[in-house]
């Protein structure tokens, strides 16, 4: 065993300098000789048929190379089913691909692709295209069609059943001492990573290379290959740098395939970048939703029944809802439970993953209701949660692989100063501001990939190593963290290791979705690097000229690239010496990892606890978050800085969800009201309070070799609820909607 030296350190990003000095090249930064530029023209109506497209004027504009519409764009070869990219399969974001006929299903649906020799000329020509529609009535909001709701068999690409039950919820509610019924309304949310989605497509004969902003190069590769009728080996996807994603680059939308088709059509490399406005209509969104809860408890606050229903709009093509009922059904011991999803068909694209997809919205409803229960029974909110603590996943009865939830409550409360909270609403003032304190529990599942995950490790005779796996780094810090993992497994200092990813030519890794990246990629990298180390140690032992010849491999350790006897560190040699002596320029190993079959006997979840202090101006209705504390138990922490940044980003996202983020449909025009960062509000530095993160390491021997449970999304879960609960504590008002705005607090 090597001693873990790099793992856990707050190492700076190895690519940080590149990112802030312009050295990092994103998908839209690719330049080719003879490059052409494509822009998409979207439908202005939400429902109907294209009756005529007049491209005459546009075709005569300077520099225009082609205009592709449903009349001349080649039909796709296949329509792959909606599948989550988690499994490393084709992952189209919706089963609908535009341009197959003249029907318009949603506003913004692409109806033309304009290709020109410069971006500006393509944009200009796009503005000259005249499209006539025969418009038909549209449905874009819940209120327009709630009577038409249906119960789908499954949601979330088929992975989550439409209905889940345990025990007898009606009987449980009937015998409860206390019952709370509450309905929650949520605005739709739109993804706004700094980098809009972009694809640069280049053909070399029949070989396609795509530079694509994606969470998974294999997902893009397999989806585009299926759509174009190509064998995947003919499609290479490169994604070295991605400027954020948050789920909108997890599923593969139409634009990568359209860039490839346009490039083939004009016989030149083509760059297609979505505009900020198109990001609102081209890469999915978090759906508008309504959740209702009926919660029954005994006098001591122990839950006896929970009914949790959700109603939301989906597209005409797919039964999609974010799985809002999941974590909220697993967090507390409760014998009687019923969770039901209901959907309406709407003229939107299929909604998609958006950070903590479902976990955050479902836990908002549950954790606000738990706060009401605590208030009604006069029990401290943390004490109430401890009374309902579950040692097992209530849906299966399986024990948790590890928890740490109680420590999160305790250490979070200490750090926050929870004991100073006055449970009486409106009891704490700071000048004109009403001050309130709230908390909520957090949880996010640990997902394991269904396919083996692979990585390759290579050591050079100069004593440096490179470790490779196909994953892109979309801002999570995975490049840095995997360098740390490789360094420890190989027994090398960090600065002699390098991680390479973001290329489908490298060993396959599933798309990093569902907070699974750190766990599954570290598993593959650790396995590959450990195999390489073992291979080198075995070679030294077999080498008659090595000081380690004939040693017991179990007694050999590696530090700073030097293999040595644990009991006699003076006996040993460096990796480099071994390779030089044997005339080897390098040595290589490939490692493969799959979750162990026994992991299905466990519930696997990252737990946490959120605390917030808010100040509300009762005259102006302004709510400000003054402090947030989050305590999380993510298994092993690979890098305290990047893990802390992920969690802090999640908590601030929760602040946005609580107070700012909203999109809505204009029911008359069937279009999103917000279509820029000027009217779609996200927290800026001035909104960001002091955020403190408490990391609680728990040992987990089930999830993966290093016991990593993931930090990408759990930071958001419960954050909005803690804020809403603090607003209640400050004002006595229970606001059951997101976001909470001035009108709610006046
Ligand atoms: Mo994450 S919203 O599963 O990409």
Pick out the low-confidence regions. Answer: none
| Number of H- or I-type helical stretches | 18
CATH superfamily of the largest domain: Aldehyde oxidase/xanthine dehydrogenase, molybdopterin binding domain
Number of domains: 3
Ions, cofactors and other bound molecules: dioxothiomolybdenum(VI) ion
Q: Which structural class do the helices and strands define?
A: alpha+beta
Care to count the β-strands?
Answer: 32
| Mean of all residue-level pLDDT scores | 96
Helix content: 10-25%
Helices and strands in order:
Layout: H1 16-20, E1 36-42, E2 48-54, H2 56-60, E3 64-68, E4 103-104, E5 110-116, H3 119-128, E6 130-135, H4 142-145, E7 154-155, E8 160-161, E9 163-166, H5 169-175, E10 178-186, E11 198-204, E12 207-212, H6 217-228, E13 235-238, H7 254-266, E14 270-273, H8 279-282, E15 289-297, E16 303-314, H9 326-330, E17 336-345, H10 359-377, H11 381-387, H12 405-416, E18 429-430, E19 433-445, E20 453-460, E21 465-468, H13 478-490, E22 497-500, H14 517-542, E23 556-559, E24 562-565, E25 568-574, H15 575-581, E26 586-593, E27 605-617, E28 622-633, H16 640-659, E29 665-666, E30 671-672, E31 690-695, H17 719-731, E32 737-738, H18 742-745
Parallel strand pairs: 1-14, 10-32, 12-13, 16-17, 21-22, 28-31
Antiparallel strand pairs: 1-5, 2-4, 2-6, 3-5, 7-8, 9-17, 10-15, 11-12, 11-14, 15-16, 18-19, 19-27, 20-21, 20-26, 23-24, 24-25, 27-28, 29-30
Helix pairs in contact: 6-7, 10-17, 13-14, 16-17
The structure holds dioxothiomolybdenum(VI) ion.
């Amino acid at each position: 065993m090597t001693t873990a030296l790099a793992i856990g350190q707050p190492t700076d990003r190895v690519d940080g300098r590149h990112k802030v000095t312009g050295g990092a090249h994103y998908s839209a930064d690719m330049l080719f000789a003879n490059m052409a530029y494509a822009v998409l023209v979207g439908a202005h109506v939400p429902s109907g048929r294209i009756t005529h497209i007049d491209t005459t004027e546009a075709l005569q504009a300077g520099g225009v190379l082609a205009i592709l519409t449903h009349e001349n764009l080649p039909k796709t070869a296949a329509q792959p089913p909606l599948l989550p990219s988690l499994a490393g399969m084709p992952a189209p974001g919706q089963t609908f691909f535009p341009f197959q006929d003249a029907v318009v299903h949603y506003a913004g649906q692409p109806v033309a692709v304009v290709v020109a020799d410069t971006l500006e000329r393509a944009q200009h020509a796009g503005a000259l295209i005249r499209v006539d529609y025969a418009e038909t009535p549209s449905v874009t909001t819940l209120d327009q069609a709630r009577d038409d709701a249906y119960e789908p068999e499954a949601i979330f690409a088929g992975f989550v059943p439409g209905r889940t039950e345990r025990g007898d919820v009606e009987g449980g509610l009937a015998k409860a001492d206390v019952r709370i019924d509450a309905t929650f309304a949520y605005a739709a949310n739109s993804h706004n990573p700094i980098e809009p989605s972009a694809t640069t497509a280049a053909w070399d004969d029949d070989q396609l290379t795509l530079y694509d902003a994606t969470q998974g190069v294999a997902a893009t590769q397999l989806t585009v290959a299926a759509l174009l009728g190509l064998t995947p080996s003919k499609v290479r996807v490169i994604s070295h740098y991605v400027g954020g994603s948050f789920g909108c680059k997890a599923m593969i939308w139409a634009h990568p395939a359209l860039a490839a088709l346009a490039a083939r059509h004009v016989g030149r490399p083509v760059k297609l970048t979505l505009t900020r406005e198109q990001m609102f209509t081209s890469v999915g969104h978090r759906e508008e939703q309504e959740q209702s809860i009926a919660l029954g408890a005994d006098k001591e606050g122990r839950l006896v029944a929970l009914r949790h229903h959700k109603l939301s709009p989906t597209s005409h093509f797919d039964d999609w809802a974010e799985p809002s009922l999941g974590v909220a059904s697993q967090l507390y011991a409760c014998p009687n439970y019923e969770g039901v999803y209901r959907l309406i068909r709407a003229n939107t694209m299929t909604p998609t993953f958006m950070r903590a997809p479902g976990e955050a919205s479902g836990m908002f409803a549950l954790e606000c209701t738990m706060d009401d229960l605590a208030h009604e029974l006069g029990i401290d909110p943390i004490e109430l949660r401890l009374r309902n603590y579950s040692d097992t996943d209530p849906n299966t009865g399986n024990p948790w692989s590890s928890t740490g939830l109680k420590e999160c409550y305790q250490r979070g409360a200490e750090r926050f100063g929870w004991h100073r909270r006055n449970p009486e609403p409106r009891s704490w003032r700071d000048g004109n501001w009403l001050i309130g304190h709230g908390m909520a529990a957090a949880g996010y599942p640990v997902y394991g990939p269904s396919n083996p995950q692979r990585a390759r490790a290579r050591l050079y005779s100069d004593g440096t190593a490179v470790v490779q796996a196909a994953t892109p780094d979309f801002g999570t810090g995975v490049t840095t963290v995997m360098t740390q993992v490789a360094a420890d497994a190989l027994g090398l200092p960090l600065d002699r290791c390098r991680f390479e990813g973001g290329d489908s030519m490298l060993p396959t890794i599933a798309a990093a979705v569902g907070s699974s990246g750190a766990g599954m990629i570290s598993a593959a990298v650790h396995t590959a690097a450990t195999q390489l180390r073992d291979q080198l140690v075995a070679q030294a032992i077999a080498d008659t000229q090595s000081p380690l010849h004939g040693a017991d491999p179990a007694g050999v350790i590696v530090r700073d690239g030097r293999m040595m006897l644990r009991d006699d560190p003076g006996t040993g040699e460096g990796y480099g010496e071994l390779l030089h002596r044997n005339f080897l320029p390098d040595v290589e190993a490939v490692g493969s990892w799959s979750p162990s079959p026994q992991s299905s006997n466990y519930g696997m979840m990252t737990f946490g606890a959120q605390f917030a202090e808010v100040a509300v101006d009762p005259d102006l209705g302004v709510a400000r978050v003054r402090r947030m504390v989050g305590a999380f138990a993510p298994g092993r922490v690979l890098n305290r800085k990047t893990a802390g940044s992920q969690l802090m980003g999640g908590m601030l996202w929760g602040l946005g969800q609580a107070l700012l983020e909203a999109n809505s449909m204009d029911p008359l025009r069937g279009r999103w009201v917000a279509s820029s960062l000027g009217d779609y509000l996200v927290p800026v530095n001035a909104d960001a309070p002091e955020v403190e993160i408490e990391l609680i390491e728990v040992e987990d021997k089930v999830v993966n070799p290093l016991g990593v449970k993931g930090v990408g999304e759990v930071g958001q879960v419960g954050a909005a609820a803690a804020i809403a609960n603090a607003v209640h504590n400050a004002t006595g008002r229970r606001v059951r909607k997101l976001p909470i705005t001035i009108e709610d607090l006046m």
